[in-house]
């Protein structure tokens, strides 16, 4: 009996009390089905049950987009950390510090260059994991740096958008990034270089009202929310019920606002094909600067 009591019983209790790690399973945001995290990662953060495209980090975007995941990240210009000495529930400087520690990113946009489908390309990715991808002075500087790098390398610029809009902690300085990024897009046009935008969920506010909707080719992931103001704000303003699927990628495609809706797994091949076509067009007949 001592063998059963001293050895077998503790082993059984240990098995019964074994805890499942918190990061082993997750739930789909759309259908609520449980998914093994490792299966979700293999499927590029797309739900295998309903096809819902979940959010992706900057590192994942770069790894999925560039050939073999090989790319070179660039250092981005520094800006004044807290131009307005803003404070809400905490100081803006403290909020930035916390976000940088949590996300391991300096700001809400990262830029890298490498090859897509064998073609040179510069890619800028908005980081929703950093203060909801909001647009401030640092993002404006990062976007301009990406455009300048593309011009220097004579390569197309591909931008992945994911944003809650302007960053309130920077006030009018945030709004000034709308014309600033628009000027950077015009620099690409003047250089005759392709500018491709991939809209992801969500893309809203001042980002939608500026560089996110100025691409030579506008691509979106399925069911991405794309708009300036939210549906509830619009309904309260116009006092009408909005159509089903309003502001979703498929609705915008049907109404001519974007060019295509592409599944995440197909994006690298699609981008490589588009870059090849646009590069060929550029060589055959350089893009004319806008008048």
Quick recap of the structure?
β7, α8 and β8 form a beta-alpha-beta unit.
Spell out the CATH superfamily of the largest domain. 2-enoyl-CoA Hydratase, Chain A, domain 1
Helicity level: 25-40%
Radius of gyration: 22 Å
Q: How many separate helices?
A: 11
| Spatial strand sequence of the major β-sheet | 3-4-5-6-7-8-9
Tell me, briefly, the overall form.
globular
How many distinct domains? Answer: 2
Order of helices and strands: HEEHHEHEEHEHHEHEHHEH
Mean pLDDT: 91
Q: Mind telling me the CATH class of the largest domain?
A: Alpha Beta
Q: Classify the beta-strand content into a percent band.
A: 15-25%
Largest sheet: 7 strands, mixed
Low-confidence segments:
none
**How far apart, in Å, are the first and last alpha carbons?**
93 Å
- How many E-type strands? 9
Structural class: alpha/beta
Second rung of CATH, namely the architecture of the largest domain: Alpha-Beta Complex
What is the CATH topology descriptor of the largest domain?
2-enoyl-CoA Hydratase, Chain A, domain 1
Notes on the protein architecture:
It is a single chain. The strands form two sheets. The chain has a seven-stranded mixed β-sheet with strand order 3-4-5-6-7-8-9, sandwiched between helices. The chain has a two-stranded antiparallel ribbon with strand order 1-2. The longest helix is centred in the C-terminal third of the chain and has 18 residues. The chain has two domains: 33 residues, no CATH class; 224 residues, Alpha-Beta Complex (2-enoyl-CoA Hydratase, Chain A, domain 1), CATH 3.90.226.10. Helix 5 packs parallel to helix 7. The chain has 291 residues and is an alpha/beta fold. The protein has eleven helices and nine strands. Strand 5, helix 5 and strand 6 form a beta-alpha-beta unit. The model has no long low-confidence stretch (mean pLDDT 91).
């Amino acid at each position: 009996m001592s063998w059963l009591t001293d050895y077998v019983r503790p082993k059984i209790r240990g098995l019964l009390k074994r805890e499942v790690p918190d990061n082993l399973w997750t739930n789909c945001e759309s259908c609520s089905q449980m998914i093994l995290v490792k299966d979700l990662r293999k499927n590029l953060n797309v739900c295998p049950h309903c096809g819902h495209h979940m959010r992706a980090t900057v590192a994942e975007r770069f790894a999925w987009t560039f050939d073999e995941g090989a790319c070179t990240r660039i250092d981005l210009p520094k800006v004044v950390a807290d131009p307005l000495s803003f404070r809400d529930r905490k100081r803006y400087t403290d909020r930035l510090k916390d976000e940088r520690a949590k996300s391991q990113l300096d700001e809400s946009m990262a830029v890298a260059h490498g090859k897509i489908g064998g073609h040179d390309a510069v890619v800028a990715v908005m980081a929703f994991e950093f203060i909801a991808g909001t647009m401030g002075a640092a993002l404006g500087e990062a976007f301009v740096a990406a455009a300048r790098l593309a011009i220097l390398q004579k390569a197309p610029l591909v931008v992945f958008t994911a944003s809650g809009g302007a960053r309130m902690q920077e006030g009018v300085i945030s709004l000034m990034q709308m014309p600033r990024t628009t000027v950077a897009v015009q620099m690409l046009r003047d250089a005759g270089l392709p500018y491709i935008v991939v809209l992801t969920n969500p893309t809203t506010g001042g980002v939608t009202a500026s560089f996110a909707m100025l691409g030579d080719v506008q691509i979106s992931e399925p069911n991405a929310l794309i708009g300036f103001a939210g549906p509830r704000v619009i309904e309260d303003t116009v006092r009408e019920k909005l159509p089903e699927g309003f502001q979703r990628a498929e609705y915008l495609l049907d109404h001519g606002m974007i060019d295509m809706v592409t599944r995440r797994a197909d994006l690298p091949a699609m981008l490589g094909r588009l870059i090849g076509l646009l590069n060929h067009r550029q060589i055959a007949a350089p893009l004319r600067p806008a008048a």
